[in-house]
Each structure stands twice: as C-alpha cells, then as structure tokens.
Amino acid sequence: xxxxxxxxxxxxxxxxxxxxxxxxxxxxxxxxxxxxxxxxxxxxxxxxxxxxxxxxxxxxxxxxxxxxxxxxxxxxxxxxxxxxxxxxxxxxxxxxxxxxxxxxxxxxxxxx
Length: 112
What we know:
The protein is of the alpha+beta class. The protein has helices spanning 19-24, 66-80, 101-104, 106-111, and strands at residues 6-8, 16-17, 27-28, 36-40, 48-54, 59-60. The longest helix is centred in the middle third of the chain and has 15 residues, at 66-80.
C-alpha cells in the first residue's frame, strides 16, 4: 500500500478537496482512491484528519429519483414513529430514549 502525502491545515494544493467540498461543488469522489491527507493539529489529542480527493477525477452527484425520494421519506417517517404508541411524534425520536417523550415520561405528561 502506497503512502499518501500529508499536508498541514490550510496548506493543501489546489485541485484537491474534501468530501464536503466536493459535495458543495456538486461532485462525489466516484470510487477514486484518497489522493492526500490533511491534518489539523490539536493540543492534547491526536490531529484531526481529513482525506482529500482529486477534483478532476470526481464525478457528478447522482440525481435523486422519485424512488429515492420516496425511500428517504419512509426512512424519516420511521425515525419519527414511536415504537411504543405507534404515533408520529413530529420529531426524530432520540436513540437514548428509543420512544417519544410522552411514553418515556408519562408521569410528567399527566401533571401538566
């Protein structure tokens, strides 16, 4: 496995971008290997690492099809549905509770 060049924060050459930067340009890595690595030093922990990809080899983002929109809508609806009472909570149910707040704290709902 070949090593990739490592650049310090804000010193990466032109023509390379992170995933987020590619996405802002309407691009995606498209299966290419990591071209370089960006490191941002921190005081008491290891450095933050971001992988850089070539902008020239990047491919356009795939468009959302009606089927993908429908699947995304179903997934978001499942995240809002309480498994205890089966109602749409109107918000994404926290993983820490794994149920809506009405089911998690019934005594507080009665007092209000």
